[in-house]
Design brief:
about 375 residues; alpha/beta; Aspartate Aminotransferase, domain 2; Aspartate Aminotransferase, domain 1; three-stranded antiparallel beta sheet
Length: about 375
């Protein structure tokens, strides 16, 4: 075993320090123009986002949670309307529905740890109006199955694609299957800014018009007030930074897929672990590996041991599915989700770790199970 290293789960200072000169130059350029709210940088970013995903329209918003909420408001949820979600998701998937006036219905996950299509079909009631699949950890769900259920039952699909910019299923980009999809640009995302930020994409021009008005005090693209709205605009400075980062985005995705392949090659034979799919495991999926989340025997002991070796890990979302938080009033029992959160752990997956770092992490895991 090599000497002790320090490998944080995510090295936030390096997000700035590694590109310091470019970032400072961008801040100065935007500052000299006084271009802080809804300027050309935001318009350029929205254009780049729509082109990259293949969507007709994109709107920069304050954060991905707002993006989901605004999408559901644009759809027109009514009190009592049910929307089916995976319980293996961030709380925001559910809270956006609640804030927009609907009722989230958490369901079970399948073998891929994403929303289970059979569970979705079984949860449909006369009150169901939509499905909000989470494209999780950089992987897109089996959207053929989801969209088939939606079409059969006349349901609206709004995708929580917060972690999936660049992810595709059968060549189609996450966020473009339903009426809208929301992305996050939180600093630790594959494409991250220096604070909260989000974007919503849609191919539906009417949904776009509603989204646009909702995110800017009811104003349309000409500045005329057409409806009630609020302020959920992506700051122009953040958009300018995201524009710079987007230039190298394909390289970032490629590197993360290399890291995932390294984890697979080092850990794939350990029977104590259940790894996420390898990059080339299923030709229908193109994963961007926002996170590297696996299941592990003796998870808590492993996490403690890795911390002693200087390796940062995370148990996502407090180690609970949405339905497991007592204060939210859910009554479901979802054994697959509950079992998953007893075993799940995330290893470092970012642009700051080297191949040697990955080897060190993997050697540490092997040593733990060999003890």
């Amino acid at each position: 075993m090599s000497e002790l290293r320090k490998i944080p789960f995510f090295d936030y200072p390096r997000l700035f320090l590694d590109d310091r000169e470019e970032i400072l130059s961008t801040v100065e350029e935007v500052g000299r123009r006084g271009a802080f709210i809804m300027q050309k940088d935001l318009a350029e970013f929205e254009s780049t986002l729509s082109s990259f995903t293949g969507a007709k329209h994109a709107v920069g918003v304050a954060n991905a949670t707002d993006g989901l909420e605004l999408a559901w408001l644009a759809v027109g949820l009514n009190k009592g309307d049910e929307v089916i979600i995976s319980s293996h998701t961030m709380l925001a998937t559910a809270s956006a529905i609640v804030t927009a006036g609907g009722t989230p219905v958490p369901v079970e996950i399948g073998p891929d740890n994403l929303i289970d299509a059979a569970a979705v079909a079984a949860a449909v009631t006369p009150r169901t109006v939509g499905i909000s699949p989470t494209q999780l950890n950089g992987r897109t769900c089996d959207m053929d199955a989801i969209m088939e259920i939606a079409a059969k039952n006349n349901l609206v699909v709004v995708e929580d694609a917060a972690q999936a910019l660049g992810s595709r299923f059968k060549g189609k980009h996450a966020g473009t299957f339903g009426v809208a999809g929301s992305f996050s640009f939180f600093p630790a995302k594959v494409l991250g800014c220096f604070g909260d930020g989000g974007g919503v994409i849609t191919n539906d021009s009417q949904i776009y018009e509603k989204l646009y008005q909702l995110h800017d005090h009811g104003r349309d693209t000409n500045g005329d007030i057409k409806s009630w709205g609020r302020n959920s605009r992506l700051d122009n400075l953040q958009a300018a930074i995201l524009n710079k980062r987007f230039v190298r985005y394909q390289e970032v995705i490629a590197r993360r897929r290399v890291i995932a392949s390294l984890y697979q090659s080092h850990l794939g034979n350990l029977e104590e672990l259940q790894l996420p799919p390898a990059p080339e495991e299923n030709g229908h999926h193109f994963d961007v590996y926002q996170n590297y989340e696996l299941q592990a025997d003796k998870r808590d002991e492993l996490k403690k041991y890795l911390a002693e070796q200087g390796i940062g890990t995370i148990i996502q979302w407090g180690g609970k599915g949405v339905h497991q938080w007592d204060g939210l009033g859910f009554t479901q029992t979802l054994p697959m989700v509950e079992r998953f959160f007893e075993r799940s752990i995330m290893l470092p997956m970012n642009m700051f770790i080297s191949d040697d770092d990955v080897s060190y992490v993997c050697d540490s895991i092997k040593n733990f199970y060999r003890k």
